[in-house]
Design goal:
By secondary structure, the protein is an alpha/beta fold. 38% of the residues lie in helices and 14% in strands. It has a single domain, classed as Arginase, Chain A. The structure holds zinc ion (ZN). Zinc ion binds next to loops.
């Protein structure tokens, strides 16, 4: 069984600074999940509740939360060049974080792979700031909830085409939350270089795999098999939260990458299989991030849901002699922190 959490009021948020992060994204994603269900996947839909204030405060500063809420409840306003709100945005964002909390509870307490199908996205939002269409960092809120449920090691895997600078910032010096991202670089928001590897006790626990524009399934599969999956296996998280963005799809108007739906089905199957294989690891909790071509978004969500229940397809084996240069370079840069990446 798979659980999906969402709320129709996530569609009431309107960002006047973006034509692509549109309310219709919610219905498109939902339809993809529904197609997976009608074709036989055992998928159960539930409405999300707003995230409790203490769950938000585990990540965001009280002052930021108060200001954002006041801005929205006053009718909305401008936050950055890409990000603005209307009167419903606070509620939509809090329902988004609430769905993420429910997803991680569904995974850890219910033992079922869970998917928060929400908007606006979250991974560019930091403790004190909104950015890049994002108001509240749902994945970070979910990770904090996982810690409060007793998980000692939590991983966040971010496959959105953009680097999740907000999530990275929030956990940069923490040893309890591993952040892994594969993303286009150089690209918005400008972070996510190989040498951004964490600080203090968090040194080595930020894992960035930057890929050039137009990367397709071969490069991405090598990034998963050569870096992301071995590091996850070595870290032994008790839950894997996925920042599931679909803007690396070849038809996305922003991303400039070359993936298709099939890749995301394989990626979700690989993460679900890894979680089954690890001792004491819950099934994955996924949270929708970007993805701005409605048809592609719908197809990718469908493939992801199917992947969660299925077996991984063709094995993604890492072959050093055939590995693309960006993946080889990432392994070399991160090898001092991870035995599994050492030659
Ligand atoms: Zn994105």
């Amino acid at each position: 069984m798979i659980r999906a959490y969402s709320h129709p009021n996530c569609a009431r948020h309107h960002n006047p600074n973006s034509s692509v992060e549109a309310p219709q994204r919610l219905a498109a994603a939902f339809e993809g999940a529904e197609r997976a269900r009608t074709s036989g996947v055992d998928l159960d839909f539930a409405y999300s509740a707003p995230a409790p204030r203490e769950a938000l405060e585990a990540v965001h500063s009280p002052g930021y939360l108060d200001d954002l809420r006041a801005l929205c409840e006053g009718g909305g306003g401008y936050l950055d060049g890409d990000t603005a709100t209307n009167a419903h945005s606070w509620q939509a964002a809090v329902l988004g974080s609430g769905a993420a909390v429910s997803a991680v509870e569904g995974a850890m307490q219910g033992g079922v792979p869970s998917f928060a199908i929400v908007r606006p996205p979250g991974h560019h939002a930091g403790a004190h700031y909104a950015m890049g269409f994002c108001l509240l960092n749902h994945a970070a809120v979910a990770a904090a909830r996982a810690r409060s449920l007793g998980a000692e090691r939590v991983a966040i895997l971010d496959w959105d085409v953009h680097h999740g600078n907000g999530t990275q910032d929030i956990f940069y010096d923490r040893e309890d939350v591993l952040y892994l991202s594969v993303h286009r670089s150089p690209f918005y928001p400008g972070t996510g270089r190989l040498d951004e590897a964490g600080r203090g006790k968090g040194r080595g626990l930020t894992v960035n795999v930057p890929l050039p524009a137009r990367s397709g399934a071969d490069r991405y599969a090598a990034a998963f098999a050569g870096v992301l999956l071995p590091v996850l296996r070595e870290f032994e998280p008790e839950v894997v939260i996925v920042s599931a963005g679909y803007d690396a799809h070849r038809d996305d108007p922003l991303g400039g990458m070359a993936l298709d739906e099939t890749f995301f089905g394989e990626a979700s199957a690989a993460v679900a299989a890894l979680a089954r294989e690890l001792p004491n690891c819950a099934p994955p909790a996924l949270i929708l991030e970007g993805g701005y071509n409605l048809r592609a978004l719908s197809g990718c969500v469908e493939a992801t849901v199917r992947g969660l229940e299925g077996e991984p397809g063709r094995g993604w084996e890492y072959r050093a002699e055939q590995a693309p240069a960006p993946v080889r370079e990432a392994r070399e840069a991160l090898a001092p922190f991870w035995e599994s990446l050492q030659p």
